[in-house]
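Form P-L/3: holo structure prediction, ligand beta-D-glucopyranose.
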Amino acid sequence: MHTNILGVDVGASGIKGSLVDLETGKLLGDRIRLATPEPSTPQAMAEVFAELVRSIGYRGPVGCGFPAIVKRGVALSAANIDKSWIGYNIEAAFSAISACTVKALNDADAAGLAEIRYGDDENEDGVVMLLTLGTGIGSALFVEGQLVPNTELGHLVLHNRVAEHYAANSVRESEDLGWEEWAARLNEYLKHLERLFSPDLFILGGGVSKEFANFGHLLHTSARVKPAKLLNNAGIVGAAAFASF
Ligand code: BGC
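OUTPUT (holo model):
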């Protein structure tokens, strides 16, 4: 049983990785971030993935969170990455190029696993929904601590727009929305999710989770809302934990 495993979080703008101590869920050493290549084709992404593994000087199992539906190691969607990923085997490509055994899962599912395993005890009670707010919106749904994978709730439709094109953090930046304006959109989205799933708790992850003090008080839902305890590292930590299962 490995206790230190490399976790990688592949995103639409950056590929981040670090060695993770699976006892504590803490990062060991520096977190490395390399830019996601443009276009983000499988070949180009695999090269950056291999460069990251090399720069950490790592050999062993690797967990990889990936921004798509992932089933049995294969990407089945590509909302914010090159469309040629659809049907491509992430695990086979990344394992071959890095000479490591790579296990892949959806990036939000990875972040959710980290919050269940290393976050507050209450995260294992009832229906819990983790949302990553970044370029897109990722979702991870847990029922009494059990993951329902690949929920893709960022793709619900809100005001005739795909929800992630309305309320993701990238939209706050590109449309230059203030915290109040963006939080109002996020609140609408959360309320829509509540109508459908009646969660007990929302956990908000992604880079903007560290800014929770700027918008958390503007969200008014029946379910409690809190930032991810592991902030933007949740994806890396959860991916590493996944590789140890
Ligand atoms: C993708 C999801 C992903 C999310 C966050 C969405 O566009 O469809 O698979 O989890 O972005 O990266």
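COMMENT: The chain has a mean pLDDT of 97.
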